[in-house]
Amino acid sequence: MRSIILLLTLTMTLSMAGKYDKVKITPDMAYIYVYHKGKAVKVHRIQDTKHKITGEYARIFRPGKYIQPIKMHADVKTVGEVEILKFMKDKVNKKKGLLVDLRTKAAYKKESIPSAVNIPAHIKDDKSKLEKIFKVLGAKRAADGSLDTSKVMEVAFYCNGLWCDKSSDFIQTFLDLGYPADKILYYRGGFQMWKILGFTTVTNK
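Now predict its structure.
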């Protein structure tokens, strides 16, 4: 049913394709559709070529925060916006992957990347909640305490931006608990780069 709805939405908007061609994502991609809380959302870039971001994500300094390395772990893949869009389209839409927003609940409610779910970064210190998250992602705990991760989902994590350490810390916790590195993606640019590039955002009330 979900595929049929998405196909109909795509068909109805083909005539508007040129509307999003001024500021494209790539030479061959003007927009994609993703699901967010059961509804199809068109993800594209702001078409106003003079648009400038304002507010929190226009700031360049955060007290006590430093730029995160491009590679937070040797075996975890760091990705950019094009890869995240592909992940959203090919994995999240098909329930084979999860995009996780590690920012605070208040920040997530105000605005987020479409299709993302919120797991506040402080959850990494709550073992019982992490156990439930692992279960949702497909990990199984055996009677002897070992963790079977052979059928877990791919997970992409993001936080505030290039200076935010929430993602790298959370990913390290996942790795320490046995989640396979090849099933984790690190979107280093985070919400700040998403905003800078003028991508669609959603509110979560």
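The beta strands are 31-36, 39-44, 77-79, 97-101, 117-118, 140-141, 147-148, 154-158, 184-187.
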